[in-house]
Q: What sequence folds into this?
């Protein structure tokens, strides 16, 4: 009898141990979901979607995408620029407290969250910014990356910046204390020279060391026995549109398969439509082949046509690209007053966006919620 009880107890304990071993982390769940959704279509994303849009700001439950087509974007993008200084608002005046609650709200409604970071220049950062680009991410001085790596004059300062980022990211938890999984996309567009981490301002080794330092700090630091960020972050590396990106040039700066889950391309139409289409297709051909061979996700992590002067652009230019490549998502940048990249409700262009929304290939929130 006693023996039977022991065996039963052992079997129960073994069951508990095995089930806790196999419980996937939020990060793995998100990766699994992203892979499954990629089979179904390409998600539409919008930066700063719930904060402001055309002729409104900080009104609850508003979204230009929702008001144009009746559904939220599947992916919402948020930016941490300014958090490194201990600011209460980001570089685009979004209060971090509001950002936290919108990130959690989007997660709870079944959406996907992606976070970027435009930190100020660590060599020249000022408490109060000077005339643009003074002190900002766009003050692209040589030597800033070197200065924040171990042994550099700003290394200690940079660790305090990373710690502020970590504390904010750690606070992304639901009321029942579950961490919100998200895609983190630091040090983006590094193959251009407009940010201080750009390719003419540091060496490939320094860039990769910066990515490693960021990732290692965020995933290994612990306070008060918290579980850290190792369990809920999907890591993205996203160079800018090149038009002629080769695997060799990509690999020079790539942080490595063991560090990256999602490969992104930031591709805007600044010039002609023909150039945009040709260049984007060329880079996505290379990147999606690389992603397939290396078992990575691929996305248009930023894209758009400034102020969308031609509303047929959505279905005529962007949609065919989304159809021809195995993209996880395509995120257009914010609808700021001075420049917008998303749809504008209550206009003729809204109607064209609704056709893009209705295309079988594009996924909005309702399409991805089970
Ligand atoms: C840029 C512009 C800036 C903004 C920055 C970070 O592309 O939209 O106005 O501050 O992104 O969102």
A:
């Amino acid at each position: 009898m006693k023996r039977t009880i022991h065996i039963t107890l052992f079997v129960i304990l073994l069951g508990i141990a095995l089930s806790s071993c196999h419980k996937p982390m939020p990060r793995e769940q998100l990766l699994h979901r992203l892979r499954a959704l990629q089979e179904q279509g390409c998600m539409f994303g919008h930066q700063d979607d719930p904060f402001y849009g055309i002729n409104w700001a900080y009104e609850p439950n508003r979204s230009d995408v929702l008001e144009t087509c009746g559904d939220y974007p599947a992916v919402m993008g948020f930016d941490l620029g300014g958090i490194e200084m201990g600011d209460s608002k980001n570089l685009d005046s979004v209060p971090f407290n509001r950002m936290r609650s919108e990130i959690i709200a989007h997660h709870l409604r079944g959406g996907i969250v992606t976070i970027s970071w435009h930190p100020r220049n660590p060599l020249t950062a000022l408490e109060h910014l000077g005339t643009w680009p003074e002190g900002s991410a766009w003050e692209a001085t040589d030597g800033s990356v070197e200065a924040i790596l171990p042994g550099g004059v700003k290394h200690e300062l940079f660790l305090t910046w990373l710690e502020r980022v970590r504390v904010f990211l750690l606070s992304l938890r639901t009321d029942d204390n579950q961490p919100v999984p998200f895609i983190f996309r630091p040090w983006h567009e590094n193959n251009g020279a407009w940010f201080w981490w750009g390719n003419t301002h540091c060496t490939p080794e320094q860039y990769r060391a910066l990515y490693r330092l960021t990732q290692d700090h965020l995933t290994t630091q612990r306070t008060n026995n918290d579980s850290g960020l190792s369990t809920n972050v999907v890591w993205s590396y996203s160079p800018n549109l090149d038009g002629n990106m080769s695997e060799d040039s990509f690999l020079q700066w790539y942080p490595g398969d063991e560090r990256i889950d999602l490969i992104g391309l930031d591709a805007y139409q600044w010039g002609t439509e023909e150039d945009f289409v040709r260049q984007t297709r060329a880079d996505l051909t290379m990147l999606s082949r690389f992603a397939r061979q290396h078992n990575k996700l691929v996305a248009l992590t930023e894209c758009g046509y400034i102020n969308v002067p031609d509303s047929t652009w959505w279905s005529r230019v962007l949609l065919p690209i989304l159809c021809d490549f195995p993209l996880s998502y395509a995120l257009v940048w914010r609808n700021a007053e001075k420049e917008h990249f998303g749809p504008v409700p209550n206009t003729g262009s809204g109607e064209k966006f609704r056709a893009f929304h209705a295309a079988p290939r594009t996924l909005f929130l309702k399409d991805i919620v089970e």
